[in-house]
Write a structure and sequence with these properties.
CATH superfamily of the domain at 8-101 and 138-250: Ribonuclease Z/Hydroxyacylglutathione hydrolase-like
Number of helices: 10
Mean pLDDT: 93
Bound molecules: zinc ion
Oligomer: single chain
Low-confidence stretches: none
Strand content: 15-25%
Structural class: alpha/beta
Helix content: 25-40%
């Protein structure tokens, strides 16, 4: 990190489609990590090395703040906190996902498996996708948060007076932390430089009624654009020096995506998988869940707007454009 904000970006390589994850280390007033890599010896050793390089160590860490409950952002929290005396902070709505990680993961897996099947995914591809998902489960384990953060909470880390902002969309629990004076933010997966963060579809029974991932994400992007940030430090990749421009780009991309899906439906009713094949030809199986999330996320917003209707039977799910007058 070029600027001296008293924070260190620790980049940890990942064995996932996204090549690395960032943990941010704040030495003062309490040695704090903002996001921690997945669970496992390799990640603990790498994190230890990165901390040693900036004059600290895992044993000194007293607080872990988590931007959102994804394995590549909290997986090793339990192991780091094992020795005791380590605070763990996360948004109040994410407590259950952390405390009941295993059950939550299985429930999510079952939800997506059933949705994939209904969406017309061939069995072989379904098998590959669920195996990938099962493999991911081992990169984290349950951990109990000690402080549940709310939108607007304030605290000091190194030279910064940070304020927590709830930015639902990528998950319903995402938070970013910003310093209003210098307009610096730590954005987790909410805002990334080279990847458009996926508004992940949620199980309807764990989110407030009417929660829509795509609309929530767009609303959060609009809100954060209004903060006129100067620099954003994301959960993956390099800092973003013109965050508002990046947000405008992402909102335009969402508008284009809407048009593409409507265009596909203009040729007739389609299953989500048929839409995925048109939108993402040659998609690797480990990206299928993200694609499904995105497509169904947009279709849900179209449903809310009265643009499409869903046809769902015991065996399948398809969508068609409503007849317009
Ligand atoms: Zn994430």
């Amino acid at each position: 990190m070029k600027e001296n904000y008293g924070v260190h970006q620790l980049k940890i390589p990942l064995p996932f489609p996204v090549a690395s994850v960032n943990s941010y280390f704040f030495p003062e007033p309490i040695p704090t990590l903002l996001d921690v890599p997945p669970m496992g010896d390799y990640f603990m050793k790498t994190l230890e090395k990165r901390l040693n390089a900036v004059g600290s160590s895992l044993a000194e860490i007293r607080r872990i703040i988590i931007t959102h409950p994804h394995i590549d952002h909290f997986g090793s929290a339990r192991d780091i906190a094992e020795k005791g005396g380590v605070e763990i902070w996360i948004h109040e709505t994410a407590a259950q996902a952390l405390e009941e990680y295993e059950e939550d993961f299985l429930d999510t897996n079952r939800f997506f498996e059933s949705l994939l099947r209904k969406s017309g995914i061939p069995e072989e591809l379904l098998g590959q996708t669920t195996r990938f998902f099962d493999w991911l489960k081992g990169f984290a384990c349950r951990v109990v948060p000690t402080r549940l953060l709310k939108n607007g909470d304030e605290f000091r880390l190194s030279s910064m007076n940070l304020r927590a902002v709830h930015v639902p969309g990528h998950t319903p629990h995402c938070m970013l932390f910003w310093e209003p004076d210098r307009k610096i933010a730590f954005t987790g997966d909410f805002l990334l430089k080279d990847i458009s963060s996926n508004p992940l579809l949620q199980r309807p029974w764990v989110v407030p009624q009417g929660y829509r991932s795509v609309t929530s994400h767009a609303r959060s992007l609009e809100n954060v654009r209004g903060m006129k940030l100067k620099v954003a430090f994301p959960g993956h990749g390099e800092p973003i020096y013109r965050p508002s421009e990046r947000i405008t780009e992402l909102l335009r991309f969402m508008t284009r995506r809407k048009k593409q899906i409507r265009h596909i439906l203009s040729t007739g009713a389609a299953t989500p998988f048929q839409i995925i094949l048109r939108l993402f030809p040659g998609l690797p199986p480990d990206q299928l869940l993200l694609a499904l999330s995105e497509v169904i996320g947009y279709l849900e917003t179209f449903e809310d707007e009265g643009l499409v209707e869903r046809h769902e039977t015991g065996h399948g799910l398809s969508f068609r454009l409503m007849d317009r007058q």
